[in-house]
Amino acid sequence: MQIQYQKPAIQKLHSGLMNKFAGAIPPQRRVKTAVAGISVDDLVTQFGSPLFVYSERTLRRQFRTIRNAFATRYPDVTFGWSYKTNYLKAICAILHQEGAMAELVSKMEYDKAKALGIPGNQIIFNGPHKPFETLEAAVKDSVIINIDHLDEIEDLEAISTRLGQVISVGLRLNLDVGIQPRWSRFGFNLESGQAMDVIRRIQNGGKLRVRGLHSHIGTFITEPAAYGRQVEKMVKFGYEIEAACGWRMEYIDIGGGLPSRSRLKGSYHAAEVLLPHIDEYAEAVCDALWANLKPGLTPKLIVESGRAVVDEAGTLITTVCGTKRLPDGTRAYVVDAGVNLLFTSFWYRFDIALDRHVAGVCEPSVIYGPMCMNIDVVDEAISLPPLSRGTRFVISTVGAYNNTQWLQFIEYRPNVVLVTEAGNVELIRAAEDLSDLERREYLPPFLAPNAGLQSFSSTQGD
Ligand SMILES: Cc1ncc(COP(=O)(O)O)c(C=O)c1O
């Protein structure tokens, strides 16, 4: 074993980042030499670093586990794939193959789903900004539309007049299910009576008809009982609507929010300890349905789970490009992927493994990304042995929200590959180059390099 010389440094003496549950940081970093069965070395040699790697097997397995948890407890369950969580075409296509509808929240996502060939009756349109033209296209396309605010009702009524037809819609609710933070900015509030006022307003308009209810109580919900309370309130409200207007609820859409096996910053426990099993969530939802539905009525249950489906399928490989000691003695590493690619690092602590065994004493270290910004920190307290340039970190779980919220800031976004169930590696998004950045830019002729020089010399000649 080769031992590297390290210049001595004075360090504070402490026994690791213990917490009150005695969960000390591990003395040795985990080593992952392969992702989805493909060697990290081979992946980087072929596709470069940094590199996002998705596992088709993990994605399908995760989807089926969640689907089966609900489908074995309730006869009519449909999944809506939340595009915003990850709208890489290949990821969406896999989930559509598994039977998921497309859950969309913007015109851009709508365009993406249509370009992927998703028919209107397989689309759920949510979100607070639905441009009029897209809304009209969605109505013509028989999309499930869940209304967010009053102005949308006016738009839909105008579309109804234009098309000469009554339009069936869903209503998005926000409600108190006993958890914080309370997501109250979307849809209409249930407890204050606002939602019922809106139902009356819709009925009086005579142009729309409510056929379903939607709500999304938040994300990374660690309390299954919150879903039970959500479903109870939604079902009861459905019956109130039926009594008032004669409209029977065809679907109850509970949104997403199931946690992935990730770790929120500040939580002591590992995901396996902290997070309830998916069956507990399915049980809470389906028990509440059976307890509150009248005999003979089983509206469609729609689940829009995002992060729980895709997070574990995604891994990021990144390479150490610089090592340093900070003035307080802390060891620091600069890697080629930072918050530009890992937007979720602001909230989550990732599982970070090394691509090789490294000898030496572990010490608390910081991992910085390549951004020329102080906030670009991938992990601020990780126990690492002395690493040299070229060592790679294998970071998971990063499949949710990173490939949609990533920033094109001072760096090109890298390759994204999919390891298929057959064990092949497919490029699903190519690394960017300058042409991607400049394709939409225009340089006015008077600012062209030569034009600038001429006017400079002519000024000099005056
Ligand atoms: C309406 C709606 N459905 C589903 C989701 C997916 O949520 P999650 O990734 O927490 O499952 C979101 C996320 O914000 C959402 O707004």
Question: Could you describe the 3D structure shown?
Answer:
This protein has 462 residues and is of the alpha/beta class. It folds into two domains: 34-53 and 312-438, Beta Barrel (Lyase, Ornithine Decarboxylase, Chain A, domain 1); 126-305, Alanine racemase (TIM Barrel, Alpha-Beta Barrel). It has helices spanning 40-47, 56-71, 89-97, 107-115, 132-140, 150-163, 194-205, 224-245, 271-274, 278-292, 307-310, 402-405, 434-438, 449-461, and strands at residues 34-35, 38-39, 51-55, 77-82, 101-104, 123-125, 144-147, 167-174, 188-189, 208-214, 251-253, 263-264, 300-303, 314-325, 331-335, 348-349, 351-354, 363-368, 377-384, 392-396, 416-419, 425-429. The strands form four sheets. Strands 3, 14, 15, 17, 18, 19, 20, 21 and 22 form a nine-stranded mixed sheet that branches. β1 and β2 form a beta hairpin. The chain is globular, with a radius of gyration of 26 Å. The structure holds pyridoxal-5'-phosphate. Residues 82, 85, 103, 126, 216, 219, 255-258, 304-308 line the site of pyridoxal-5'-phosphate (PLP).
